[in-house]
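Structure in, sequence out. Go:
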């Protein structure tokens, strides 16, 4: 297993994931709900920054590796899934949104693994739709985590409303990108299915 700064940052993100959720389970005598929400938001933001930074450093220093390519998306998906479960529990988002986003991640991860096994992983490379979805999602989650504190505004801006809108946009782009990946992979899926018949 290679070890370098980008992979160290990815492992840091993996370590932070349980804290995003776990901080809400601290005794109320130790920390109030608003403080828990602020702490969870801060941890998520730090984890999200390491996500961008480890990729940037890996490309800049040419320290990309197969292990890093495996661990990075796993850490991302765990981080998002954990945050979405917290948001559903505190009724900041609808469970349907969480199901769409988590379900899509499972389906596309399985598709990518299968495509890699048959040597066609480039057919399901990350698209611009997926990148826009990620930006909307990673912007919405901190807003909604912070809203658990009960403070929903910075001046006239209601960050909970902004977060919900961005999350619905992310969910719509999630479905769109899933169909995009499936359409790209469909010729190979049909070909392989035809050989099995």
């Amino acid at each position: 297993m290679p070890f370098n700064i980008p992979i160290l940052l990815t492992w840091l993100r993996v370590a932070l994931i349980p804290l995003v959720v776990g901080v809400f389970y601290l005794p109320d005598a130790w920390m109030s709900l608003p403080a828990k929400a602020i702490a969870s938001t801060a941890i998520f933001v730090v984890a999200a920054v390491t996500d961008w930074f480890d990729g940037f450093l890996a490309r800049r220093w040419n320290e990309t590796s197969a292990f890093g390519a495996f661990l990075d998306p796993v850490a991302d998906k765990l981080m998002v899934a954990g945050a979405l479960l917290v948001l559903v529990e505190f009724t900041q988002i609808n469970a349907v949104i969480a199901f769409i986003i988590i379900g899509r991640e499972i389906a596309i991860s399985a598709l990518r693994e299968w495509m890699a096994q048959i040597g066609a992983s480039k057919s399901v490379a990350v698209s611009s739709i997926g990148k826009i979805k990620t930006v909307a999602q990673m912007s919405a989650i901190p807003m909604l985590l912070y809203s658990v504190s009960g403070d929903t505004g910075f001046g006239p801006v209601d960050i909970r409303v902004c977060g919900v809108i961005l999350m619905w946009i992310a969910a719509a782009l999630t479905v769109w990108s899933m169909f995009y990946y499936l359409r790209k992979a469909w010729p190979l899926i049909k070909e392989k299915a035809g050989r099995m018949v």
